[in-house]
From TrEMBL:
GO terms for molecular function: triose-phosphate isomerase activity. It comes from Thermosediminibacter litoriperuensis. It is an enzyme of class 5 (isomerase). This is Triosephosphate isomerase. Substrate binds at residues 10-12, 173, 213, 234-235. Keywords: Cytoplasm, Gluconeogenesis, Glycolysis, Isomerase. GO terms for biological process: gluconeogenesis; glyceraldehyde-3-phosphate biosynthetic process; glycerol catabolic process; glycolytic process. NCBIfam families: tim. Signal peptide: none annotated. It is found in: Cytoplasm. It comes from the Bacteria.
């Protein structure tokens, strides 16, 4: 496979600066053995400290959200220009927790994707269906509609500009991982959609991650699927040894 696997840790609202540095102290020596790419996405308040510590390590850093405007009267928001200053390599956009609790919509996701690309910050665009939608057989239509709307009016040239994460909502933080073959079915359909919307090259180059209860015990089976290029890991990325065992799944 020509796509470099990506293991991104979404820390959500966990780890202050001291805890972030403590994690990195333990994680950095281990991470040297990982052949794929690693990105850590701490809360905003820990981004700068993490980025300073990660300098020269080869590890990437990402934010968990951003506003689409450069600046302005948006109390409590963080702009892409501010993330670029850190500098962030990635930004997670459209996570289901933001869609559920913070009024993120397909339209705001689309604005944020365009803005991240303008600043050359790679968006990790999250899509995924609820349990109810899955049980009604709507999984593919829901996910592909989220993908189409996220990409409306978005120029993509070779597919290296962005990353997708398929995160079924019912698998997030529940311990219920999707069957690798089910995740493959959705991710394969997403890849096919990219070739319809753009080109075969874009579809081949775009990395598509799986997220939802990823653990050292299930990563190998997920990675054995042809279209799964890595993982967006929540809870299991908070512990250095556990996250290492996920990213180094191919070494034992
Ligand atoms: O939401 C997730 C990553 O963005 C997944 O969270 P868990 O790995 O804790 O299920």
């Amino acid at each position: 496979m020509s796509r470099t696997p990506l293991f991104a840790g979404n820390w959500k609202m966990h780890k202050n600066v001291a805890e972030t540095l403590e994690f990195l102290e333990a994680f950095l020596p281990m991470a040297k053995n990982v052949s794929g790419e690693i990105a850590l996405c701490p809360p905003f308040t820990s981004l700068w400290a993490a980025a300073e510590r990660l300098k020269g390590s080869g590890l990437k850093i990402g934010a968990q959200n951003m506003h689409w405007e450069d600046k302005g009267a948006f109390t409590g928001e963080i702009s892409p220009a501010m993330l670029k200053e850190i500098p962030c390599d990635y930004v997670i956009i459209g996570h289901s927790e933001r869609r559920q609790h913070f009024a993120e919509t397909d339209e705001t996701v689309n604005r944020k994707v365009k803005s991240a690309l303008k600043y050359a910050i790679t968006p990790i665009i999250c899509v995924g269906e609820s349990l109810e939608q899955r049980e009604k057989g709507q999984t593919l239509s829901v996910v592909l509609s989220q993908v189409e709307k996220a990409l409306e009016g978005v120029d993509i040239h070779d597919g290296n500009e962005l990353v997708f994460a398929y995160e079924p909502i019912w698998a997030i933080g529940t311990g219920k991982v999707a069957m690798p073959s089910d995740a493959q079915e959705v991710i394969g359909a997403l890849r096919k959609k990219l070739s319809e919307l753009y080109s075969v090259q874009v579809s081949k180059n775009t990395r598509i991650l799986y997220g939802g209860s990823v653990k050292p015990e299930n990563i190998r089976d997920l990675m054995a699927e042809p279209d799964i290029d890595g993982a967006l890991v929540g809870g299991a990325s908070l512990d250095a040894d556990t996250f290492y065992r996920i990213a180094a799944y191919d070494q034992s």
